[in-house]
Amino acid sequence: MSDIGGADAGALRARKTWRTLEPLHGMIYFVPEAGEAYAALGVVGRAGYFASRAAPMGAVGADVVISTFFNFNPELVRDAIPDAWRAAAPEALVDARFHAADAAFRRLLGNAVVASGEMRRAASLARTAAEEAGRRPEGRPLAAAHADLGWPDEPHLQLWHAQSILREFRGDGHVALLVVHGLSGMESLITHAATGDVPAHVLRTSRGWSQERWGSAVEALRERGWLQGGDGLRLTDWGAAQRRAIEEGTDALATVAYAALGDEGCAELRALARPWSTVFAAQLPR
Question: Which domain holds residue 262?
Answer without folding.
Answer: 7-180+244-281
